[in-house]
Amino acid sequence: MTSGSDPALTRRTAVTAALLLWAFPAAQAAPFGLDQLMAELRQVKSATGRFVERKELHMLDKPVEASGTLIYLAPDQMQKITISPSWERLAVRQSTLTIEQEGKTRSFSLADRPEIGAFVESIRSTLAGDLATLERFYTVTLTGDAKDWHLSLVPKERKLQELVKDIRISGSGRSIHTVETEEADSDRSVMRVVEEDIR
Amino acid sequence: MTRARLVLALWLAALVACAAIVAETRISTDLSAFLPRSPSPAQQVLVDQVREGAVSRLLLLALHGAPADALGTLSRNLATQLEREPALASVNNGADTALDVERDFLWRRRYVLSPDVVPARFTASGLHDALMRDQELLTSGLAPLLKRTLPGDPTGEMLTIIDAFQGETPPHSRNGLWFSPDDSRALLMVETRAAGFDIDAQQQALARIDDALDAARQETLGAAAARLLVTGPGVFAVHTRATTQQDAERLSLIAAVLIAGLLLAVYRSPRLLALGLLPVLCGALSGFAAVSLRFGFVHGITLGFGITLMGESADYAIYLFAQTAPATTPAATLARIWPTLLLGALTSVAGFSAMVFSSFSGFAQLGLFSITGLLVALAATRWLLPALLPQGFAAVEARLFARLPLMLMRHARRLRLPVLALLLAAAALIAWHRGGFWQEDLSSLSPIPAQDQQLDHALRHDIGAPDVRYLVIATAASEEAALEASERVSARLRALTDDKLIAGFDAPDRYLPSEAAQRARQAALPDDPTLSQRLQEALVGLAFRANLFAPFLADVATARQASPIQRSDVPPRLALKLSSLLFERGDWTAVLPLRGVADPQRVAQGIAGLGEAGTVFVDLKAESDRLLQDYQREAVLLALVGSLVILVLLAIGLRSPMRVLLVVTPLAAAVLLTVALLTAGGGKLSIFNLVGLLLIVAVGSNYCLFFERQRRQAGEAERTLASLVLANLCTVIGFGVLSFSRIPVLHDIGLTVAAGTLLSLFLGAMLSASGGMPAPADAADADASHRPAP
Fold first, then answer.
1. Most CB contacts within 10 A, which of A9, B411, B567, B707?
2. Are A113 and A100 a contacting pair, CB within 8 Å?
């Protein structure tokens, strides 16, 4: 009996083991990855939120603060409306950046203005879950998990390195909480996004 | 006989002289002779500028027909290829708009370039205001752009300068390269070294661009299907030359073969054919020689127009050959038909004379050429041919051609009612024609094909540089005075921009301020101790780090001492722009193109309010509309005066109002029918059509004159009719072939005259024959006794 049941048992064990062996590494490798984060972010069709931005600039003796509203519309439109200390609207659509202040409107091609383009593209591509664009400009590393993730963007090209040291974006799930920027001239800014409404 | 030899010798000598002149003649295909020429100096300046100025060297390239990514790579590879090309001065596909040299120039000279540099800006309170704004900008989205320049430029002069340079929106770009807004076309801008009117050089440059495209295509994956579109003044010049050459060569060959074939079939003698074409050759040679002597060159379009002369001047020999009755001499025939021939030729000359007086300069060549050609061909027929015709020359048998007009004449009475009905129908068609009779677009007169014009328009739209419609033009005696005028206009335009009446403008003083303005701006800058003291005061209460603005103090100190900018200091790309906005043509002219004009009337008032005599606001659209109306008015006037002269000539020649009426009636009817045909179905008339109508009268009168002179003898009547039909056919072939030309002036005149002269022949047969119909020809008698010797 035992000898008769042995092969069957062995076979079952082997199959189970094989299944386990096959399944386990996958389960093990399932930790939170860039692809998953980007896929999550791509689900977002629109997002709005209030922001508070604190800047430490080497030209000024004390930090300055600004606040306003951020609007994102998939896949490539973004607006940053500053209300305090003075009104300003910064809008990106396709490859054109428009900055509106006190009735004066200026338009730039993002490619022509890497100083601004780098920042805009980092945030917009993150919002859009567009890893390809991010990786064209930055070395992207991800730490944390889905509930508390941290993206680090370090410029790849010399030209961009001369402007930006790194950009760190943190969030949870589909929402972005902070964007921290350190520029090459050691100017720093931290932007916190609150009261987000994501659809 | 000796007299005949003398005539022959003189003739030969004249012919050789003409040939020598023609051999030395430059053939030009320069567009400007046939571009609508402007009566107003303002627009003349622009036309000239398009022809010779910096703008004429710009070519706009578009790659299409492949996926956008492939087009982008192709654009990069093509730009790399083109940059190696010595025929091109610059290549731009949007990738490198950094313009380092230009930016450096603007930065270094910002204190003399910025119109905002005034004393008040550099007082303590002026500086304080500027610094307050800077602090705000540092927290704004513009901060990354301003940070680097702020320590050297707290008053923001660079921003003022850059703002002024910027259009509303930059050209659309995709991954940093210029594309059409729908991403279907990658765009490049190329500047040739040669001027636009240097057609050979432009053609070479275009060929080199094609080569570069082939090379770039091989390096680019997935771009095999990509196609290149090129537009610009250079392309127009090259295409028009090719079209003109092709038309002149191909069409004159076709006309020559047709006419020679027809005449050979009728004459059945190569010798007679050669003799018949001799007046044509003499006429053409002397016509070209006359044009060459008068203008110094012969235009390609004039060469094309020579085709019509072939058809017309062949007529005289046809009349002679076909009307010489058997057993009479050519000299006798000439003596008989000479008054009619001369009168006919004179009416033709009167018609072409109208062209000579046209302000459409190309017409003058066509007119002079035709007048000379016709008179010489006539003279050759009168004095040369009789001496050269073989002994015992007998009439050419062409009675076959007489059948149709004979039939028409026989039934003239019965046909009058249907003809009248036809004319009434034509008149009704004209009366109920909708939407105006005239071509409303000046560009319809241009020899540049409509397709090329549309492509140019589309690509300009793509790159965000649509045609300028409004501009301000300031003229002055010197460069400095023109710049000062430009500065006064600029100041007014800045106010208009603030009032949102215009979106923006460009001005030469932006690139090169007048010396007076530069000195004034230097004088507005305080000396170093004063400035640093004021700066200290201005910084009170602000958060700027100490000593941040040391570069500012240093730069101002330098700017105060610097010598003013000369024209030669302006870097290449800006200089290119400057040369299109400021140039010398007798006087100095400053051009200020306006963008986004919301209310032209108030802008015009604003400019007029400056009260400067040499400064005008120009609406190019209105200007070109006015120009077209002027041309039309002139063409109508010339046509009326030309017709009147012809009428007077006929009255003198025929000495009878009734006879004049008989000649003129069919011509008027032919003109009426032709107008109805041309405008049927909403067609519109160009000034070329109108001149063509005059030529119908001028050329068609020849046939009507012969009809009116109809004799009753059957044989002669038939011979006359046959010669008329044959001559008419040659003329219709000449003008008809021309109607296949792609050049508007040739096409329109060709079509109008071909249709009109054919109609005037038929109508002449029905309406002009004064003596009613001739007796029916006695065929047996005529055939038996008058067949030409084999």
1. B707
2. no
pLDDT digit string, tens, across residues B261-303: 998 888 888 888 899 899 999 999 999 999 999 888 888 888 8
Instruction: Please name every residue paired with A84 in a beta bridge, in sequence order, or none if there are none.
Output: A67
Per residue in A64-118, pLDDT tens? 899 999 999 988 889 999 998 888 999 988 778 888 887 678 877 776 677 777 7
Q: How many angstroms from the chain centroid is the CA of residue B276?
A: 36
pLDDT range class, residue B775, cuts 50, 70, 90 = very low
Our separate counts of H helices and E strands in chain B read: 31, 13
**For the CA atoms of chain B, what is the radius of gyration?**
35
Strand B173-174 vs strand B88-92: parallel, antiparallel, or unpaired?
unpaired
Q: Is this prediction's pTM over 0.80?
A: no
B24 Cβ under 8 Å from any chain A Cβ: no
- CA-closest candidate to residue B302, choices B239, B356, B248: B248
Q: How many whole angstroms separate alpha carbon B51 and alpha carbon B59?
A: 13
CA B46 vs CA B60, B240, B784: distances in Å = 20, 20, 71
Would you give the distance in Å from CA B574 to the centre of its chain? 29
Kindly identify which residue of chain B lies nearest to residue A121, measuring between CA atoms.
Answer: B175
- Chain A nearest-CA distance from B73, in A, is 16
CB B483 within 8 Å of CB B514:
yes
Closest chain B residue to the Cα of A100, Cα to Cα: B141
Token couple for B616: 């005008």
Q: What is the mean pLDDT of chain B?
A: 84
- Amino acid identity for residue A85 in this structure: P
CA of A69 to nearest chain B CA: how many angstroms apart?
13
- From chain B, the residues in CB contact with A78 under 8 A are none
- Distance, in Å, from the CA atom of A62 to the CA atom of A56, rounded to the nearest integer, reads 7
Are B169 and A58 inside 8 Å of each other by CB? no
Per-domain boundaries in chain B: 2-24+237-445+624-786
CB-nearest partner of A59 from B138, B142, B169: B138
Question: Does position B620 have pLDDT exceeding 80, yes or no?
Answer: no
Place of tokens 């910096």: B54
The confidence band for A14, taking pLDDT boundaries of 50, 70 and 90, is low
- The residue of A70, A96, A109 whose CB has the most chain B CBs within 10 angstroms, and thus the best one to mutate to test that interface, is A109
**Testing the interface with A: which of B100, B129, B139 to mutate, by most A Cβ within 10 A?**
B139
**pLDDT tens-place string over residues B448-464:** 777 888 888 888 788 76
d(CA B541, CA B189): 50
DSSP element (H, E) containing B775: none
In one letter, which amino acid is B1? M
pLDDT at B75: 92
- B142: its two tokens: 């513009």
DSSP bridge partners of A175: A172
B543 in contact with A, Cβ within 8 Å: yes
Take residue B294 and report the two structure tokens written for it.
């008068």
Least CB–CB distance from A85: residue in B139, B142, B169: B139
Please, which pLDDT band fits residue B772 given cuts at 50, 70 and 90?
Answer: very low
The pLDDT score that the predictor gives to residue B714 is 63
Taking alpha carbons only, the member of A147, A146, A121 closest to residue A134 is A121
The dihedrals phi and psi of B558, each to the nearest 5 degrees, come to -65, -45
Chain A residues near any Cβ of chain B (below 8 Å): 55, 57-62, 64-66, 80, 82, 85-86, 88, 90, 94-96, 99, 101, 104, 106-109, 111-113, 115-116, 119, 163, 183, 185, 187
What domains lie within chain A, and their CATH numbers? 34-198 (2.50.20.10)
Q: CA quadruple A180, A182, A186, A187: dihedral positive or negative?
A: negative
Q: What is the pLDDT of residues B213-229, one digit of tens each?
A: 999 998 888 888 899 99
